[in-house]
Design a protein that fits this description.
The chain is α+β, with helices and mostly antiparallel strands. It has 14 helices and nine strands. The protein folds into three domains: 43 residues, no CATH class; 145 residues, no CATH class; 167 residues, Nucleotidyltransferase, domain 5 (2-Layer Sandwich), CATH 3.30.420. Helix content is 43%, strand content 14%. Bound molecules: zinc ion (ZN). The site of zinc ion (ZN) has 7 residues, from loops. One of its GO terms (molecular function) is nucleic acid binding.
Length: 402
C-alpha cells in the first residue's frame, strides 16, 4: 500500500472485520466501535477486534460457556503463564497429538503412550485414558473426568469450569499440563510413566507458583463521591450524554454552576442520528464549552463521568476515531478559553447533568435556561448542595490545564 493513497476498503473480510478508511504516512485509520481510542490501528487493537468477532461466532455456535466468559476465566487463573497458554492451545484443538499429526503428516504410530490401547486423541489423552485413572485418583483433586454432554474437550472443560471452584480448576489445569509434559518426556526422553510422581508434581508446582504469586486483593468498594463546588471565581460545567440504541437517538445535559453551587445555566437537548454513547458524551462536552464561550465565561472547570472523553480531550495530537471531529471542536473551544481544566468524576457526582440528558433522550426537547433553575432539576441540585464538598481550588492529578 502506498503511503498517501486513500480508501482501502477491506470490510467483510473475516479475519479483519473493520474498514480501513485512510492510509496516511504513519498507519492505517480504521473505524470500529471498540478499536483504539484515537482510531489508530495497532496490533493489539487488531487482535482484540479479531477476538471479539471470533467470540461472537463461537458464542453463537457453541452450546455453553465457550465464549469470552470462559477465556476470561482461563486467563485469570493463578497458574504459571505457560500453563494458561497450554490450556488455550488444548481447548483450541491445536496441540500436536498423535491423531492430529496423523491427519496432517500421516504419522503411523498413533497409540496412546500411557495405555497403548487407544489412539491418542486429545479427548482420550486428557479425559478418557484408563491408564491415567490412578493419576487422577492420586491427584489432590481426587476426581475422575466424568461423562459430559458435549462432544469436544472444549465442551467438557466449559462444563467442568462451571462446576469446580477456582482453586480446583487451577489444579485441574496443572494436571492437564502435567499429563502433556509427562507424555512428551516418555516420547522424547524415554522416561517412565509414574502416576504418583505426576500427581505430586502437579500439586507442588501449583503450590510453589501460588506461594510466590499471591492473589491480588481486589480493592474494597470505593466510597461514594460527591459533587464539589468550584473555587471562588470559577464556574463548573458538568456534562453528560445519554444514548438509546434503538432508533439511534439520545440526549445531552449541561449544567453550569458557580462557587456557591447556584445554577447559572443549563441545557437539555435531544440528539438524532447518534451512533454511540461516547458520541453523546462528547457532544455534551462540545455544547457545554460552546455555552461558556458564547456567554464570555472563560475560567472554567469541565467535568464528565466518561473517562474516555476526558482522556481524549486531555491528550495532544489528532484524533482519528469516529468522534475525532467533535473532539477537535472541543479542543478548539478549550484553546480559546483563558483557563480551562477538565476532570473525570464518578457518575453519582454528575446527577444533575445525567437528569438533563436522560430527559432529553426521551423527548424532542431543546431547552436552554440562563440565570434560572428549571424545576426538573431542583431536587438533584438541592441534593448536590446538601452533600457537596466545598472546592478549594485544588488540582487533582487528573486535571489537565490548557
Ligand atoms: Zn490411553
Amino acid at each position: 500500500m502506498i503511503p498517501g493513497s486513500h480508501c482501502l476498503i477491506v470490510s467483510n473480510f473475516s479475519l479483519f472485520p473493520w474498514r480501513v478508511l485512510n492510509y496516511g504516512s504513519q498507519c492505517p485509520i480504521v473505524t470500529y466501535g471498540t478499536l483504539k481510542k484515537k482510531g489508530l490501528y495497532s496490533v493489539k487493537s487488531g487482535y482484540r477486534v479479531a477476538c471479539n468477532a471470533e467470540n461472537i461466532t463461537s458464542q453463537a455456535s457453541s452450546s455453553g460457556g465457550s465464549g469470552i466468559f470462559l477465556w476470561n476465566k482461563v486467563w485469570g487463573l493463578r497458574v504459571p503463564p505457560k500453563v494458561c497458554v497450554f490450556i488455550w492451545r488444548l481447548l483450541r484443538g491445536i496441540l500436536p497429538t498423535k491423531i492430529a499429526l496423523a491427519k496432517k503428516v500421516g504419522l503411523l504410530d498413533v497409540d496412546c503412550v500411557f495405555c497403548h490401547n487407544y489412539a491418542e486423541s486429545d479427548m482420550h489423552l486428557f479425559k478418557d485414558c484408563g491408564a491415567l485413572n490412578c493419576f487422577w485418583h492420586a491427584s489432590a483433586l481426587g476426581l475422575l473426568p466424568c461423562p459430559h454432554t458435549g462432544h469436544t474437550l472444549l465442551d467438557w472443560f466449559s462444563e467442568v469450569s462451571q462446576l469446580l471452584p477456582t482453586n480446583h480448576l487451577e489444579l485441574l489445569c496443572m494436571c492437564l499440563w502435567v499429563i502433556w509434559t509427562e507424555r512428551n518426556n516418555i516420547i522424547w526422553k524415554n522416561s517412565f510413566f509414574n502416576p504418583s510422581h505426576m500427581a505430586s508434581w502437579a500439586f507442588k508446582s501449583l503450590e510453589n507458583y501460588q506461594k510466590y504469586h499471591p492473589a491480588i486483593r481486589k480493592n474494597s468498594q470505593r466510597p461514594l463521591s460527591h459533587w464539589e463546588t468550584p473555587p471562588s471565581g470559577r464556574l463548573k460545567i458538568n456534562v453528560d450524554g445519554s444514548f438509546i440504541c434503538e432508533g439511534e437517538h439520545g440526549g445531552i445535559g449541561v449544567i453550569i454552576r458557580d462557587a456557591n453551587g447556584q445554577c447559572i445555566a443549563s441545557l437539555s437537548r435531544s440528539l438524532t442520528h447518534v451512533s454511540s454513547a461516547i458520541q453523546a458524551e462528547v457532544e455534551a462536552c462540545r455544547a457545554g464549552l460552546f455555552i461558556a464561550i458564547n456567554q464570555g465565561w472563560d475560567n472554567i472547570i469541565l467535568e464528565s463521568d466518561c473517562a474516555s472523553i476526558v482522556t481524549a480531550l486531555s491528550s495532544v495530537g489528532d484524533d482519528f476515531s469516529q468522534i475525532g471531529r467533535i473532539v477537535g471542536d472541543c479542543k478548539e473551544f478549550m484553546g480559546s478559553l483563558r483557563s480551562i481544566s477538565i476532570r473525570h468524576i464518578y457518575r453519582e457526582a454528575n446527577g444533575v447533568a445525567h437528569r438533563l440528558a436522560h430527559i432529553a433522550s426521551f423527548s424532542n426537547s431543546d431547552k436552554f435556561w440562563l440565570h434560572e433553575t428549571p424545576s426538573i432539576i431542583e431536587d438533584v441540585l438541592f441534593e448536590d448542595l446538601c452533600n457537596c464538598i466545598r472546592g478549594s481550588g485544588f488540582m487533582s492529578s487528573s486535571v489537565q490545564n490548557f
